[in-house]
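Chapter summary example.
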Amino acid sequence: MPRQNKVLLGLLGTTLDRGQEITRWERWRPTVALFQHEDLLIDRFELLYQREFTDLANRVMEDIRHASPETEVRGHVVEFEDPWDFEPVYEGLHDFARAYPFDPDNEEYLLHISTGTHVAQICMFLLTEARYFPAALIQTSPPNRSNRDVAGSYRVIDLDLSKYDSIATRFQEEQDEALDFLKAGIATRNAGFNRLIEQIERVAIASRHPLLLTGPTGAGKTQLARRIYELKRARRQVSGRFVEVNCATLRGDGAMSTLFGHIKGAFTGAQRDRPGLLRAADGGLLFLDEIGELGLDEQAMLLRAIESGVFMPLGSDKEVESDFQLIAGTNRDLGAEVRDGKFREDLLARINLWTFRLPGLRERLEDIEPNLLYELDQYAGKIGERVTFNKEARTGFLDFATSPDAAWSGNFRDLNAAITRMATLAPGGRITVEEVEEEIGRLRRSWHSAEDAGEGGKLLQRLIGADGVEQLDRFDRVQLADVVMVCRRCSTLSEAGRLLFAISRTRKKNVNDADRLRKYLARFDLRWQEIKALA
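The structure predicted for these 535 residues follows.
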């Protein structure tokens, strides 16, 4: 295989590369010195310089041709408005790299980073790391005082981390630790959730823009927001507090005061200044849970605070500043809220740059078992007593928890409550089948009660009791609740029957709606008089 051409790129050193007299060959000049090493053969050199230093660039290129006649030397004018300003320097070098005809298959590239301003050196490093320059870095150093060799020394640095297993392994370990921390140490198995946490970890470390966490109540938005804060604090990205507020608790004038503060005398009862939660979160993280509950006026002030970092406390004519990162949480469809005029479109546009939906527990059934172990550990930490399941009880609970019968309408709050109850009632710290069966019944009644919380469901519970409702299939429960509601609205059994059988009665030759309804109610040991007698 033929040797690849070795190509060197570098910036002119406007100070270190200088030298007018013949004595210049007796001093170390970093760019020229690269061509004075017998073990470093460069086939082509590309010198980048600003137009005002053309004379110096020409002299350096001529000296390189003298020191290394076999090297092709070419010059390129790259202008920087201010060599100490990152933006123009990065832009100039980036444009050069984009336009240069790199051919990595046939050429090997080195980028010299010992010349130019520190800003230029940093920009060249970043562009090389991002592979705009597909090169290894080469760094030169002057000779020791005891060494008369003006060539000094050089060192090649390859940014391909795959060649440095220990470094790559350390980075991976740190990322794994961050992911484990965001998941509270729970060995979650749901692939979609794990991918979600990986993305959140990358964004949380790399961005200060607002994050929007969506998902059903009890999916863990608050716990995740707090762990994001703890992760950023560990990385020294925030120094202030974690400030949390549920916007559903903010109403009226108190909402403005709670969020943005007020001055003394701003309203009746304002006997002293109040800083507000936005100022309390200065330098830290503000978590606004259920942000969809905020009023439109509060939304407008919040938008300005996010965009400019300033806001006006209630009753004040002076702006105050607060530098905070926002995480918002909601279980609502904010897009629908915008269409209904209940949420500002500009605020939604500002906070949903990074939107992450947390799935409910029903969508993560494979994670119930590891969360079961986590909840038992949490209980032991609070109570100081270890509680475990016996084998049959554990199997029974997991079979139910992962079955279609388990609604988990309260998500992880339901699971936490279930484990707490069973652990509290466990004899001798051992949860048995008896505690599990009792808890399964309790959960079923709770979920059925929530499903049947409408007026028909409440009436049905009054008629046959919670245990009676528990014995009904979901199909019968929903249907019977509607029948009871119709009976309550109608004055006679026949009227209720005509309404309930309005379609099927047209296909019958002999119609007796009252009798059909009476027989239907009898299947559940109910009578018309009982339903009408309810207060």
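To summarize the output: The chain has four domains: 5-164, 183-357, 364-451, 455-533.
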